[in-house]
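Re: that chain you flagged

S.,

Sorry for the slow reply, it's been a week of failed gels. I finally had a moment to sit down with the sequence you sent. For the record, here it is as I used it:
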Amino acid sequence: MLFTEVGRLGATQSRTSAGSEALFVNSAGAQLPPRHAAQGPGVTSQGVAVQLRLHRGGLPPRALQRVREFIEAHLEENISIQTLADIAGLSMCHFARAFKQSEGMTPHDYLVQCRVRRAQELLARTDLPLSQIAIAVGFADQSHCARRFREHVGLTPSRYRWSMR
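Prediction finished late last night. Pasting the structure tokens below so you have them in one place:
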């Protein structure tokens, strides 16, 4: 039946962004035969309500952009979640939840990812020792940098540098 198919597709669509999900709901309503479409989206011909879940939440785009820019500009510093929450204008708990919903990772994981990315750039473009690169990108020491780098890239920093030459 049509609503079985709509329900199956809707479950698949619920894993995507809210914008594309809303697009699906609107296009599904346009595809309904007139006797079903007249009842509106989410209602079957028998008058049974169908629950349509839209994923909402996350940080507003401007707040997310401010947080990203702050992280990039202050990567070498010790950045606290309270500082990021203040930039977004939220409490720490609300910020952490909203950031994860927006980015798909925790603020700490995002920060580590940015630091590893910057370390990759420095390893490829400069001849600085790894100990200096580690400090320049905000890791506590060379060991911490190497461990996180290997987790994210799959190579040690020295092998990565060698492969980029």
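What I noticed first: Residues 61-104 form a domain with the Arc Repressor Mutant, subunit A fold (CATH 1.10.10).

Talk soon,
D.
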